[in-house]
Amino acid sequence: MCILVGGGVFFAQVFRAAAANFGGVTQRTSALLMHAFDEIIRSPTGLLWIAWYVCLGVVTHCVPLAVTVKFATDLRLRGPVQIRLFLAQRGVMLLTILLMTTALIQWNTWMFPDTLRIEGASLLASHNAALLIVSTVSVAALAVSWLLTAATTKAIAILLSPLALLLTATALTSPSIPTGIERAQPDIIILGVDSLRPDHLHGRGGSTTISPNIDTFIRHSVSFEQAHTPMGRTFVALMSILSGQYPIGHGARENLYPREMLNIEQILPHVLRTHGYRTIFSLDEVRFANIDEHFGFDILAGPPAGVVELTSTALANTAGTNFAQLIPGLSVLFPHTSGNRALHDAYVADIQTERIARATRRVSPQDPMLLVAHFTMPHTPFARGRWHKEILDPDYIDSPPGYRKAVSVADLQIQSVLETLRRQGRLDNALVFLLSDHGEGLGMEKDSWTSARLASNPSRVPARFGHGTAALDDAQSRIVLAAQLYKNGSPVWPARRSSSPASLIDIAPTALHVAGLDHHGLQFDGAPLINRDGNVIAPRSRGIFVESGIFGRSLETLDVDPGSVANEFSHLYNVTTDLRVELKREYLPDLLEAKERGVILNGFGVAAVPSPSGTGCWVKVDYSSRERQCFSEPHSDPLVAKYSALVCSHFAQDSSFYQSWCTS
Description:
Blueprint: H1 2-22, H2 27-42, H3 44-78, H4 81-87, H5 92-111, H6 129-150, H7 153-172, E1 187-193, H8 212-219, E2 222-228, H9 234-243, H10 247-250, H11 268-274, E3 278-283, E4 299-300, H12 307-315, H13 319-324, H14 349-361, E5 369-375, H15 401-423, E6 429-436, E7 441-442, E8 449-451, E9 459-461, E10 465-466, H16 474-477, E11 481-487, E12 490-491, E13 496-503, H17 507-515, E14 544-547, H18 562-569, E15 573-575, E16 581-583, H19 588-593, E17 597-601, E18 604-609, E19 617-622, E20 627-631, H20 638-650, H21 655-661
Parallel strand pairs: 1-5, 1-6, 2-13, 3-4, 3-5, 8-20
Antiparallel strand pairs: 2-11, 6-11, 7-10, 8-9, 11-12, 14-17, 15-16, 17-18, 18-19, 19-20
Helix pairs in contact: 1-3, 2-3, 3-4, 3-5, 3-6, 3-12, 5-6, 14-15
C-alpha cells in the first residue's frame, strides 16, 4: 500500500508540474522537447538518469509513509489498550497514511516556494497553517507514542542507522585546517554574482542591509567603479573572464553558442594547469552555459548541464525529493536538481556552497588552486515568495523586493565560500576577485533616458528590463569588480577605489601578472589592472567595447516567465548527440545581424543600433546627463564619427556588419 500511495503522490506531483509548465507551449517548443526526448531515448546514460530520478522520487515518498505505517502497526500490536483499540478500527491505517501525506505536502508548500532556505534564514507563515499543524501534530504524536510504548531496540537501531551513517560520513569528510603549508604560487579565486548592480551596494549609495558581506569585501579591496561587461550574458561573460578576450576573439557571441565555434584551448584554466594548478568550476544555473572539463577544469561543482538536467527537474521537484535534498549528504543523490537555481521555487542555497567546500577539499593543500564560482541568485526570474518590506533610500524605492532579497541570499553564499576558504587555509596566499557578470535592467526611473532626436521636443525613454538586450544601457553593462591579495588570512593591499575603465577581459591578465606566471603565448584583449603591490596600473582612459545579445518581447519585463521565453526562442536551439543544448548554426547570421555593437569611452557611448525596419542609426549616449541621440550619418557629429570608427575597427571581422555600417 505504501508503494502504491507513495508512487501515486509522486506521479501526481510530476503530472501537475508538467501540466503547469508545458500546458501552454507552442508547436516550436514542443518540437524541441520531442527532439530532447528522442536523444535521451537513444542515450543509455540519459535513460539511466531518468530511471534513477523516477526511482528516487518514488522512494522518497514511500519511506515516510512506510515509517508511519510501521509506527501504527507496532502500536496496534504492542501499544496501550486504548491505542490498540483505536488503531484496530477499519480505515484508521488509511487515515494514518493520509495524515503523513498531508504533512509532507503541506511542509513542502510552506518551505517551497514561499521562502528560500539558507542557514540562518527564517520561514515565512504558511497559508495552510491548519492542515500543516493538524497533520504534523498527529504524525508526531504517533511517533512519540511508538517510541515510548511500542518500539523495539532492533526497530530503533534500524531507523537510526541511516542517521548514524550520515553523521559518520560528515565527520570523516569534515574539513581539516592545514598548518604550515606554504604555496609559492597564490590560489586564484574568482567569485561571481549574477546580475549584481553596483548601485545597489552600500558603497555606491544602496541599502546597508542587502549585501553587508560583499560591501565589506569591496570596502577593503581595490575596486573599479567604471567596470563593464563585454556583453550582458552569463556564458559570454564567463568566457571573457577565462580568456581575457572580447567575444569576437573567444568566439562566444551568445549563451549556448556552438562549442566547435569557441576558442577554448588558450584560456586561463589550461594555462594554470601547466603551472601545476588544480582547477575548479562552479555554476548553479547551467542552462546558460555548456562549460565542462574541456575548458580546462579538473573538478566541476554544480548540476551537470544538458537535457537530462532539463528533464530531471520535472521529476525531482516534488515534496519528497525537496526534503531529501535537505538531509546532509543526500543531495549527492540528486546531482542535476539539488542546488539548481533553475528550480527557483525549490532552490536550497546552502547546497551549492557545500558543493564548493567538498570540491576544494579534494585539492591537496600543497597544490595551488583556481576556483571559479558563480552564483545566479539575483538572475531573473526572481524566486517567488512574500518578501519582507524594507525602508529604502529614495533612489531605490522602485527597486524590486525580489531582486533585493536574492542579492541578500547571494551575499550569504559569498560569505560562506570565503569562510570555507579561510578554514581550509586557502586565504593564506590567494588572489581573490569579486565581480558580477553583468547588471540588470529593473525598470527603475533613475535608469531612464532623455531622447534628443528632436532637440525642440525631447522625449522620455523609459528604462529597459533584463540584461544583454541593449549594449549601451549602463544598468545592464556596468558591473561590480574588486580584487584583494590575501596573506595568512588577511588582506594585504590597501583599499583603493579606481575610476580607471575596466572590463571582465582584464581578469585573466591581472591574475597571471599578480601571480608572476607566464602567459604561454595567450593573446589578451585585456590588460593587467593591478600590480603585485596593489597599485592600479590600468590606463586612465580607454574604450571598452560592448555588444548586445538575443532580445524579444518575453525578455522585456521584470517578471520573466521561462515558459514564454521558451515559446519565443526554442526554435533557435538544437539538442546534440551528447545531450547538450546549443544554438543552431543556421540562425547565427541573423542573430549577429541584429546585434548592437558599441564602445564606452570618457563618459560617452556610441553604438550601431539596428532596427527590424532597416532604419537603424548610430546612437550616442551621455551617461552624466542621461541623454541619447540617434544619428543616421556618423560624420554629422565629431564624437560619433570618432567612436564609430573605433567600433568598426573592433568588429571588422563581422563582415556583414562592417559592410552595412562602416563602408558608406
